[in-house]
């Protein structure tokens, strides 16, 4: 990779200040995507601001309404957290299925959400659970956060500090992984809230993670796998590549959504 | 570093695996794919298995790092997990072996008595290009057993 300057931030305000003073900076969370991209010279920031030592970005806590996970919580920490397992076990299971054990020991929630890879797992959870993304300057609702492929509502230099997940009545995440990369070819997170059902799909969308209103309405009326029989998503809005055609992904969205509903009921 | 204090100044872009191999001469962590997929470079950072090709050396500043070289006892005796790989022929060319052993030890930390299914899941990030997985799984199972026996 190209040379860059490495700066350590001591707290969120220090990180944001360093970002604003640097030319062409990026935040370094776990680096499991960013460093790989820099090695391939797909990314070449002049400065990395390392968030590793910011204690305020760690921690996992819950109240009766919501689970709050610090941005620097690793996937392994979320997967093993008794608090997560007690409140939103589907989120722990999702985290336990990201990448492989070594990636999970380093990769972080904040990094994944900020990167918004169209095949990443966490965006489906954030969207289906109607989570709030907390940053150094504001709170962004999930529905407004993901804006496209690798694009979010974050302003330049805006730092995710935590994600607050409302605790659903029932939820499950099921993914159909690409057999080689293990990224989600299709991943569906289904969450049943008091206010209704939310269904979010990752891996399949031509412009990233998306909700399926037709599924949500049917499941709100009757929360059962066969409630969405006969419903589908339009392949025109889905990705088509060497791994799978849009039509195949559309088929999988229905299959995996039904499995997710069944898992949520189990 | 394997129980020894190391002070060094490195360019920020130095990968941990390059620092281990080129600066410290610890060549047990192998560079297989260099794209964070094969796991041959796996080492322990503060007790957790990580891919040292996908981590900066500066990210390990102040941390405890253990490589395959750090597992061997002072008298040269193999770690029970290493011995299990030898006894069960858990290697063919041996290139992936250090990473397999380090990942196996991370698994045993989390699950002292893993099932074969759990072993296979836990080795998801380690590729053996000889495809000798059967004996690797048997070795990890036996290594975990030996570690339980040894307490």
- Which CATH C-level class of the largest domain in chain A is it? Alpha Beta
Question: How many individual helices of chain B?
Answer: 5
Q: What is the name of the CATH architecture of the largest domain in chain B?
A: Orthogonal Bundle
Count of DSSP strands of chain A: 14
| Count, helices of chain A | 11
Low-confidence segments of chain B: none
What's the mean pLDDT score of chain A? 97
Which spans of chain A of ≥5 residues are poorly predicted at pLDDT below 50?
none
Give the second-level CATH assignment, the architecture of the largest domain in chain A.
2-Layer Sandwich
Biggest interface, chains and residues, is: A-B, 27 and 27 residues
Helix/sheet category of chain A: alpha+beta
User: Percent of residues of chain B in helical segments?
Assistant: 25-40%
Return the domain count of chain B. Answer: 2
CATH superfamily of the largest domain in chain B: [2Fe-2S]-binding domain
Query: For the record, what CATH class of the largest domain in chain B applies?
Result: Mainly Alpha
The fraction of residues in strands of chain B falls at 5-15%
CATH-derived topology of the largest domain in chain A:
Uridine Diphospho-n-acetylenolpyruvylglucosamine Reductase, domain 3
The CA-CA distance between the termini of chain A, in Å, is: 47 Å
In whole angstroms, how far apart are the ends of chain B? Answer: 24 Å
Tell me what the structure shows.
The complex is a heterodimer of chains A (266) and B (151). By secondary structure, chain A is α+β, with helices and mostly antiparallel strands. Chain A has three domains: 5-50, 2-Layer Sandwich (Uridine Diphospho-n-acetylenolpyruvylglucosamine Reductase, domain 2), CATH 3.30.43.10; 56-166, Uridine Diphospho-n-acetylenolpyruvylglucosamine Reductase, domain 3 (2-Layer Sandwich); 170-265, CO dehydrogenase flavoprotein, C-terminal domain (Enolase-like, domain 1). In chain A, 33% of the residues lie in helices and 25% in strands. Chain A has eleven helices and 14 strands. In chain A, the strands form four sheets. A five-stranded antiparallel sheet of chain A has the order 4-5-10-6-7. A four-stranded antiparallel sheet of chain A has the order 11-12-13-14, sandwiched between helices. In chain A, strand 4 and strand 5 (66-70) form a beta hairpin. The longest helix of chain A is centred in the C-terminal third of the chain and has 20 residues, at 246-265. Chain A is globular. Chain A starts with a strand and ends with a helix. Chain B is globular and about 40 Å long. Chain B has two domains: 16-71, Beta-grasp domain (Ubiquitin-like (UB roll)), CATH 3.10.20.30; 80-150, Orthogonal Bundle (DNA polymerase, domain 1). In chain B, strand 1 (42-45) and strand 2 (48-51) form a beta hairpin. The longest helix of chain B has 18 residues, at 133-150. Chain B is mainly alpha-helical and 151 residues long. In chain B, helix 2 packs across helix 5 (133-150). Chain B has a three-stranded antiparallel sheet with strand order 2-1-3, covered by helices on one side. The interface between A and B is medium-sized, with 27 and 27 residues.
């Amino acid at each position: 990779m190209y040379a860059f300057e490495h700066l350590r931030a001591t707290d969120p305000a220090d990180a944001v200040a360093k970002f604003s003073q640097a030319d062409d900076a990026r935040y370094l969370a776990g680096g499991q995507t960013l460093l790989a991209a820099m090695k391939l010279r797909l990314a070449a920031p002049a400065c990395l601001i390392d968030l590793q030592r910011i204690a305020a970005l760690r921690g996992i806590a819950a109240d009766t309404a919501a689970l709050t996970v610090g941005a620097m919580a690793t996937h392994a920490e979320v997967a093993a957290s008794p608090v997560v397992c007690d409140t939103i076990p589907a989120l722990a299971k999702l985290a336990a299925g990201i990448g492989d054990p070594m990636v999970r020991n380093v990769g972080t929630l904040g990094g994944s959400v900020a990167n918004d890879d169209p095949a990443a797992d966490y965006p489906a959870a954030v969207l289906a659970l109607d989570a709030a993304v907390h940053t150094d300057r504001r709170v962004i609702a999930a529905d407004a956060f993901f804006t496209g492929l690798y694009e979010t509502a974050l302003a330049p230099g805006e730092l995710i500090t935590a994600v607050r997940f409302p605790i659903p009545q029932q939820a499950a995440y099921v993914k159909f992984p690409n057999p080689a990369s293990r990224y989600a070819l299709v991943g569906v997170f289904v969450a049943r809230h008091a206010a209704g059902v939310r269904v979010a799909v990752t891996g399949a969308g031509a412009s990233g993670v998306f909700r399926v209103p037709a599924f949500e309405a049917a499941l709100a009326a009757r929360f059962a796998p066969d409630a969405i029989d006969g419903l589908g998503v339009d392949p025109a809005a889905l990705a088509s590549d060497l791994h799978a055609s849009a039509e195949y992904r559309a088929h999988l969205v229905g299959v995996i959504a039904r499995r997710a509903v069944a898992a949520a009921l189990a | 570093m394997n129980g020894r204090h190391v002070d060094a100044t490195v360019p920020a872009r130095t990968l941990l695996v390059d620092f281990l191999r080129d600066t410290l001469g610890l060549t047990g962590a192998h560079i297989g794919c260099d794209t964070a997929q094969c796991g041959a470079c796996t080492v322990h950072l503060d007790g957790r298995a990580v891919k040292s090709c996908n981590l900066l050396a500066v990210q390990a500043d102040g941390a405890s790092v253990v490589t395959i070289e750090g597992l061997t006892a002072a008298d040269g005796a193999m770690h029970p997990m290493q011995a299990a790989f030898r006894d069960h022929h858990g290697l063919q060319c041996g290139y992936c072996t250090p990473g397999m052993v380090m990942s196996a030890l991370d698994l045993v930390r989390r699950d002292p008595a893993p099932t074969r299914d759990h072993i296979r899941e836990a080795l998801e990030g380690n590729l053996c290009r000889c495809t000798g997985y059967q004996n690797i799984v048997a070795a990890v199972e036996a290594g975990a057993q030996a570690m339980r026996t040894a307490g």
